[in-house]
Amino acid sequence: AAAIRLADYTPPAWRVSDVVLEFDLGIDSSEVTAHLTLRSEVDAPLRLDGEGLELLSIAVDGTPLDPGRWRHTDHVLEVSGMRDGSVLTTRVRVQPAANTALEGLYLSGSREAGFLLTQCEAEGFRHITFFPDRPDVLARYTVTLRADKARFPVLLAGGNPDGAGELPDGRHWARFVDPHPKPCYLFALVAGRLEKIERDYVTAEGRAVKLVIWSEANAIDSCHYAMDALEHSMRWDEQAYGRSYDLDVFHVVATHDFNMGAMENKGLNIFNAKYLLADPDTTTDDEYKGVEAVVAHEYFHNWSGNRVTCRDWFQLSLKEGLTVFREQQFSADMNSPSLKRIEDVALLRRAQFPEDAGPLAHPVRPAEYREINNFYTATVYEKGAELVRMLAGRLGTEGFRRGMDRYFADNDGRAATLEDFLGALGAANGIDLMPYLAWYGQSGTPRLRARGRYDEGAQRYTLTLSQHTPPSASQPDKHAVPIPVKLALFDRDGNMLPLHLDGEACGTETVVVLDASERSFTFERIPHAPVPSLLRGFSAPVLLECGYAPAELALLLTHDPDGFNRWEAGQQLAARAFDDCRTGGAEALDAWSSALRQLFVEPGLDAALLADLLTPPGEIELAERQEAVDPAQIHELRQVMQRRLGRVIGAEALERRYRELYAPGPPALDAAGKARRRLQRRVLELLALVAVDTAHALADAQYRSASGMTDRLAALGVLVRGGAAEATDALADFRRRHADNPLAMDKWFAVQAQIPGEPALGRVQALEQDPAFTLKNPNRARALLGTFASGNPSGFHRADGAGYRLLAERLATLDSLNPQIAARLATAFNGWQRLEPVRREMARQALSDLAGRPGLSRNLSEIVASVLS
Ligand code: B3K
Ligand code: ZN
């Protein structure tokens, strides 16, 4: 397939003002009639996208169209001689049950009990009907659904309900009208046997809204938490951004068959059940947070994405980066800001930094793509959110709100660009933000270097900051970008010093902006050499290189009043401790472990924060520190450093703390309960490294007495990953207990795919034979193969290459079923060029064998080709 380029954008020759859709729904075959009112000022043939559609009839203004006037090739329907205002009517047939790609109209669940639904973003609508399938064509939709009433009692589409009734032969109909013009990727329908819960909501503007969450009958009791999260999100968006909901109904539907997390279709959000269903017996604390975050994210899209949409898919981060940022703010407000920031920065480093450092690197606004579904990446989402955060920080709370108000006002009902966004934020504040466009157009993580010089005589501290972004194949010359560096200076007792910059007092914390390749900043009236705390709150998505002495990081780790900054200092120190383990050094390892021993007994420290402080960077992040990556060695060294930490704290102290944290009875879902469980898990994991028998006995007892999934899965994880004898019984018990719950069973597969080292492969192969395993369900495929390939480096990267060959084989099979999922799982190969030579060659071989297979999808072949390059 040819590359599609941002530089080639042209406005559509034909627009559509109104769409009238009629669906005659059936599991094997559904018919779709579309009446499109077409608009154009230019004399050009009409070209509509369409894939996998059987064209039954075509007419213009009610008259069958002369065969000479239209041509239907593979993916395009071309019609000549159309006039402005004409109505084109097409009737097509599609096959929902045969649709394994889960894009367009498809069946979720079994033929007997399942339901029909749609997924259109990015380009699924062309699998439903002929249409200019691009986000800058905005139209008003009227949708009528017709189906057998017994088999499809519930009929839903986006928009407000506009009538329903009976039809002959046991059929019925329902109509929905959406008054807000929208791009076709936001179209959705759902039809089948579903249960609901409802809640009444009144917006700040006084509109009465019916909130309805739908699921299959056996899961409806697990929808209440999502309903609360939805209500909180709606209220929050009114308060934080002045944005209210704009239809009379808001439907949310859960499905177990979904390619991603959820989808923000106008008025009819569709969710992967993993991000909607929640109950203490089957849902972990982290998953509860995930539900709250994704419900909020999809809801927030109603303004950042739907009311203001994207001109083209290159602008994807306009809605995604912004909406991730809005969700981060919301989750911080609902929970703990520093824990949320820790989680988000950890995710950025684990998922986005490696992406940005390898062959899949691309700018937040890519310059070209072949398959757009491959660009729903950590870069577009998470780095995109970091860029919005920088802009928000630059403008301050009020300035950012002013800018967002302007953005929504100027672009409501439009398909906008990133320039529109920066322009509105800047115009509302009288600031030129266009220099930040450089961040959007350039791939790679900038390196920020910091050097400090203290002049005792002058009582002056000079901080010199410089930046450098390593060249990449498509961008050999990288430019300087504006880097806001939030900073503080600490004295040797761990107190923050008052800052005087350029003759002005600026409190104890300030932001300097590095807007060139190098700059110096001079602080006056500094009584002795300070310890700088840089990039506070992770004020820019960069890699900081600062020649700290381990003792300086330890000082920040123990004294910084801000939880996030403490954690950050601890992460840097832990990375140095890891280097010590590799090279036989001791300074950082000692500083890290003794600082944490001190914090372990510090009264009043939040238990969840302590748990995070006690967790060193993960194996993927640590691999960035090795020249020739050996994942087995990294796993081993990380264990060594954690064992050292466990010894320094002491087995007895760990066991005592574990017992203190024990709380019988049903799990408390408040912050204190979650914090307790988080720390207890961490303590148990550390104990397992220094007193294995005690830890396994405790884990076994915890497994058996646990009344919630968080504690049960934590215990199971310690047993399974530790190779404990007790693991076998616990796994069998878990399976019996949760056999009917697909989301719990996903965890059963995933925990076993995490067994470290050589044994993982055999376990994965055995689990593939389990009757509950199927490649057809994305959650199940991700739970087993995704966890193995992307979440278990020492298991996947076997020196004999068998992990690579297994994945490549499965990708080929999966590709013929569901190309989006195959392409996503294939990104596990990213970074293979940096492996040590033996593994590198094995990975290259597996990848090039895969690349050579005939008939790969555009999705998978693009990823494989990029990763290989
Ligand atoms: N916008 C969807 C993602 C669609 C992915 C298409 N491959 C969910 C979200 O980001 O909210
Ligand atoms: Zn989104």
TrEMBL record:
Report domain Peptidase M1 membrane alanine aminopeptidase positions. 225-432
User: What are the Peptidase M1 alanyl aminopeptidase C-terminal domain coordinates in residue numbering?
Assistant: 551-868
Q: Tell me, what is one Gene Ontology molecular-function annotation carried by this entry? A: metallopeptidase activity
Looking up InterPro entries in the UniProt record yields: Aminopeptidase_N-like_N, Aminopeptidase_N-like_N_sf, PepN_Ig-like_sf, Peptidase_M1, Peptidase_M1_dom, Peptidase_M1_pepN, Peptidase_M1_pepN_C, Peptidase_M1_pepN_C_sf
Record EC number? 3.4.11.2
In this chain the Aminopeptidase N-like N-terminal domain maps to: 99-186
Among the record's GO biological process terms, what is one? proteolysis
Q: Pinpoint the Peptidase M1 alanyl aminopeptidase Ig-like fold domain residues.
A: 444-545
Keywords recorded for this protein, A-Z = Aminopeptidase, Hydrolase, Metal-binding, Metalloprotease, Protease, Zinc
Top-rank EC class of the record's enzyme:
hydrolase
Catalysis performed (reactions): Release of an N-terminal amino acid, Xaa-|-Yaa- from a peptide, amide or arylamide. Xaa is preferably Ala, but may be most amino acids including Pro (slow action). When a terminal hydrophobic residue is followed by a prolyl residue, the two may be released as an intact Xaa-Pro dipeptide
Cofactor names from the entry are: Zn(2+)
Establish whether keyword Hydrolase is in the entry.
Answer: yes
Q: Which family does it belong to?
A: Belongs to the peptidase M1 family.
Give the protein name, as stated in the record. Aminopeptidase N
Give the lineage.
Answer: Bacteria, Pseudomonadati, Pseudomonadota, Gammaproteobacteria, Lysobacterales
